[in-house]
Amino acid sequence: MTNKIRVTIWNENVHENRDEKVKEIYPDGMHAVIKAHLDKQGDMETRVATLDMPEHGLTQEVIDSTDVMTWWGHCAHAKVEDEIVERVKKRVLEGMGLIVLHAGHNSKIFHHLMGTNCSLKWREVGEKERLWNVEPAHPITEGIGEYFELPHTEMYGERFDIPTPDKIIFISWFQGGEVFRSGCTWERGHGRIFYFRPGHETYPIYYNENVMRVISNAVRWANPRFVQEHKCVNYKPLEKI
Ligand code: ZN
Q: Shortest CA distance to 22 belongs to which of 11, 36, 10?
């Protein structure tokens, strides 16, 4: 047995194999950069799962031995098998933590857990983003200042069609004028979910130390305190009725 947080880093890993610009930034895939950062933490043990693996790398055995999963997908959401999505969702409801990154807002798993369209405005001109830390006492923002900036990003703008978050952790401002709820938390069943916006594949976002710090903080926050399979039980009274 290990006391380390068991993290499964899921990546669609399509752009990194197909687009020269992305390949240059992430020669071993985005998952490798995220993994290297989490491995440095000391309190986490990580593994990687990608779309092209059998069962997308998310066998029942992998799911059952995952405390927190991170999810990056963009152009191949539709290729993720419904059966696997159901498997991940069931485990979140039982207590597994889930961190949905960037274009994961349109993933099947995020849609299923939110129940809304999760649509937004977007634009890719490489503008500046300033992420305001609006919950400085939250574990996810530990070590993060009042704000941090990304010099070149894709813009995501409101309205972001999500259910009202339990907490809004970051609000982004973009050079073009839009704002966006960039870091949000929810609970579904026993599972904790964090959506974190940064991560467009054509910019080196996952080399930014603030972005990475937020991700490792979020892994610790989402680590389950309680895991239980859900069932409806016929329950005997404790007293004589
Ligand atoms: Zn993007």
A: 11
